[in-house]
Amino acid sequence: MTARADESADVVIIGSGVGGGCVAHQLAGSGARILVLERGERLPREAQNWDPEAVFVDNRYRTTDTWLDAAGNVFRPGQFYYVGGHTKVYGTAMFRFRERDFDGIEHAEGTTVPWPIRYAELEPWYAQAERVFGVHGKAGDDPTEPARSGDYPFPAIPHEPVIAEVFERMRSRGLHPAHMPAAIDFHPGGTCVRCGTCDAFPCRIGAKGDAETRLIDPALKHPNVRLQTGSLVTRLITDDSGKRIVGVEIERDGQRSVINARLFVLSAGAINSAAILLRSADPKNPAGLANSSGTVGRYYMNHNCTAIMAVTPWRTNATRYPKTLTLNDYYFGGDASDRPLGNLQLLGKIQEPMLRGALPNVPKWSRAWLARHSVDWYVMSEDLAQADSCVRLTSGGKIQLVWKRSNLRAHQHWVDVAKKLLKDVGFPIVLSKPFGTDTPSHQCGTVRFGTDPATSALDPYCRSWDHENLYVVDASLFPSSAALNPALTVAAQALRVGAHLQAGLHRF
Ligand SMILES: Cc1cc2nc3c(=O)[nH]c(=O)nc-3n(C[C@H](O)[C@H](O)[C@H](O)COP(=O)(O)OP(=O)(O)OC[C@H]3O[C@@H](n4cnc5c(N)ncnc54)[C@H](O)[C@@H]3O)c2cc1C
Predict the structure, then answer these.
(1) Tell me: the pLDDT tens digits for 168-194?
(2) Which atom from ligand 1 is nearest to the alpha carbon of 476?
(3) Does 233 contact ligand 1 (Cβ within 6 A)?
């Protein structure tokens, strides 16, 4: 295929997920011609959205692309390419990172890299992100919660009876269970019907606060913003100096073309953004774009996560929306460790088809019984940044994901503590299963921001140190992963960067 230069815009945003969507949201009123390029299409609203067979057994929405793992084995990653990015299937947990997460924390296996900005800098943007996504929550019941300039936009989603009971039992043991911040449209007049799915399922009625409904669609109401779907960005093109980006090459309907612009915002998600930068290597930038520090594609992190099913044989769990409770008493270790352990939160309700992969030899009726009687948890610990945990390209241009896991002793300790705690609060059977490499749900860290061009790819506003008109704004910017869900932090920094760009568009 030969590339044609057939289109131009003032600003090209690559990816319509959280990062790209927030930047589009901030630039929407600017008058500049904004073009959002998205490889996927709109995720159809259809009966299968809420069908666990379709979602978990048939993998209806998962990409059919394959990557290689560290050993060179081919796998089909848990990647979802749609307008709205991974928020189309996300679990709606919208946490702020804790103040200390930005400072550098000592873990059992190493110390995290401090962020180039502190929590206080991001606080107003967290507040805006919560408003934009319509986050429900309750301030003040979580001792680790960072300082807030105001309350949540909406009150916390109420616990359903089984969860309310667990909440009280935890409280009676001196713990501090808290209401989980969640972006679903559940309040008087809201559209959420507590369908019984949510986490990992698309929302058939648009009641999930995702990047399509909350960012892209509102931005598209402005005549200067355009979305072009089915447009796979393959590489960025520089001018003769190698310093300025002049175009982006896309593949669409089997055709290759180039789109020119003055400003480029790369928001393709942590793995794909790194891959695009590496794939864009040219004679002036032989190691890839934005990569004079050698950090692009390195320091890949993805949280250490384990699912726990806590089973009470004599009671069924009919909860429709379980994601209302979280526990951070052990986030920094608590009385169980002098080093951080992590977060405990409820997962979406596990259903029988979701167990088929994990328990293939267990009879279907047994899996169904388990799913009916379990309360389902997500145990999360920080993954520490390591240079050789990375995204690479093979000689054929395929993505190889080499996830070098870290901090696993702390994670195992946290899983043990959580299992004991769940037994103590009334679940005699507690089963666990770790998540693996094929589930890069909380991918981050591969194009880190910082204050030093020698050790980071981006400045504190996510501008490439090497290219004045290239910003990378998605989860790749994280220098550390904390132990909380990433989307609200991506959103906060992307809103901050978007506002900064809006104020200085004339410079490009
Ligand atoms: C099942 C699941 C559950 C999750 N639950 C939660 C949760 O409850 N809370 C939370 O905080 N986080 C959750 N996450 C993580 C969260 O969704 C991500 O952290 C967040 O979406 C990252 O935003 P991003 O902008 O970095 O990337 P994305 O949202 O992934 O956006 C990247 C976009 O770029 C597009 N793209 C990729 N490559 C190209 C290319 N070459 N050309 C053009 N477009 C491209 C993609 O299609 C996508 O639209 C979950 C993720 C998954 C998979």
Answers:
(1) 999 999 999 999 999 999 999 999 999
(2) 26
(3) yes
